[in-house]
Design goal:
The structure is a homodimer of 270-residue chains. By secondary structure, chain A is α/β, with parallel strands linked by helices. Chain A has an 8-stranded mixed sheet, with helices on both faces. A 4-stranded antiparallel sheet of chain A has the order 4-3-7-8, with no helix packed on it. In chain A, strands 9-6-11-12 form a 4-stranded mixed sheet. In chain A, a hairpin with a 4-residue loop joins β11 and β12. In chain A, α2 packs across α3, α5 packs parallel to α7 and α6 packs antiparallel against α7. The first copy, chain A, is globular, with a radius of gyration of 18 Å. Chains A and B meet through α3, β5 and α4 of A and α3, β5 and α4 of B.
């Protein structure tokens, strides 16, 4: 089993990813796709008069401030337009794709963080943010995935997840993909985005880190990575800890982006 | 098997429907829910600067003018916010709900009507509307529904459907529910909306038609029904033709709306 995460940043080439996945499916390679939708969620939220806000946690991670209205807009883009757009495109390419969110059949269940410790952007002081619908995936309904894959369907999976109390929660897509890959005992997790991998000097693409040992992940996260890449490295670490053999951070751009990553193009972490 | 359609008009009481469905599930009654989202699609489409337009076919049926951008907004509301909102609520009520659109696993496949014969609202003349993403469900992937129901999941189904060429197509929810009920050999199809059933003198609720024979459906459609109710009666006819024993048109309002309809409250068609 191969788990692929394709990000939701501006510039991600979904068409190249779908074409590559369709070819892999025809070759008999089982896969599960996890996707994002962040950039478009920002656009739709702004158009609907509820512009996005981001918060930085005390440990330095940036995430979307997610109130109830944000969850609804998030679902519109991730589970609606993006998920169904990918299912439609994959179906047209001959893949019997089936879209699921983490809510469906409790696919991605976890703990809701009712209070987030954040750094106040105005004062720089730490404070607690409440009424937030965010959380972390703890369990994956692998039975549902196996049921569908066994019957010839190709899962296309999207946040949000579901809390133990059955609330929709915004869970990070990279970390959700890592959890899924671990739960399915996937050989490889491929995380595709709009950059070629971990860059030593962002955004200089010539500074790509081609290999990273598991033991060096924590320091790379603290010293090299910026922004979203820090969470991708956290996801990579969680995937390896979950039993995944190899994580490749690659670009969605160019021909055969999935196979290029599988061939080692990008940052290979093992 | 019981198939329930709950409409997307303003004033539909989803909470009452979910609570009733959860109780039925606990009593061991298998069901499949089909839902709409029309009112909210109108709101979101307007907010996003792509206000809804409706066309009237030469045979007198009104439908949403559906270009590619409309399909995306439609998916945002139907497959995103509404579908996931219902799944979340049912999960909170103890039902292992799982949302699917007609695209997923080609659940609702049919023919795309590339050209619609409509009545021009300005000139009153007939003309042909092209580039529309609408169609009619022809086949239901009952294998997928049986797979999921057999494994303990409760399907929550939403348009759009998928064309034979794998394009997302706007299919009518009532008629899709009728097709599903027929394909599953459901005993009863319950169609809930914001009105108590077929009204002889709309909107006078005292003029409710309590029983309607299958043989009288065509004339009722022509002589009594207006607007959306005409399509519901067409769906009822198609369900009975598909082998469903009984169709009940009822209201989503009040306690136990599903069981009230099953007990004969509304317009019973058989």
């Amino acid at each position: 089993m191969l788990v692929i995460k394709v990000g939701g940043a501006e510039g991600v080439d979904y068409e190249a990813v779908c074409q590559d996945l369709a070819e892999l499916a025809k070759e008999g390679q089982p896969w599960l796709l996890v996707h994002g939708g962040s950039h478009e969620t920002n656009e739709v939220a702004t158009a609907l008069g509820h512009p996005p806000e981001f918060v930085t946690s005390a440990s330095g991670y940036t995430s979307r401030k997610t109130d109830r209205r944000t969850i609804e807009i998030f679902e519109m883009v991730y589970c609606g337009k993006r998920n169904k757009g990918l299912v439609e495109r994959l179906q047209a390419l001959g893949v019997n794709a089936l879209g699921l969110s983490g809510l469906d059949g409790r696919l991605l269940e976890g703990r809701r963080k009712k209070a987030l410790k954040i750094v106040d952007p105005e004062t720089g002081r730490r404070r607690v943010l409440r009424d937030t619908y965010t959380g972390t995936v703890e369990t994956v309904n692998t039975g549902l995935i196996e049921l569908l894959c066994g019957a010839g369907y190709w899962p296309v999976v999207s946040p949000p997840g579901i809390s133990h109390e059955s609330e929709a929660i915004n869970v990070d897509g990279d970390r959700a993909a890592a959890k899924i890959a671990g739960a399915l005992a996937a050989e490889t997790l491929v995380i595709l985005s709009d950059v070629p991998g971990l860059l030593r000097d962002f955004p200089d693409e010539g500074s790509l880190v081609t290999h990273l040992a598991k033991a060096d992940l924590a320091s790379a996260r603290e010293e090299l990575a910026q922004g979203r890449m820090r969470i991708k490295l956290l996801g990579a670490e969680e995937a390896l800890e979950g039993g995944v053999k190899r994580v490749v951070l690659g670009t969605s751009k160019g021909e055969h982006p999935v196979r290029a990553a599988l061939a080692g193009k990008g940052t290979v972490i093992e």
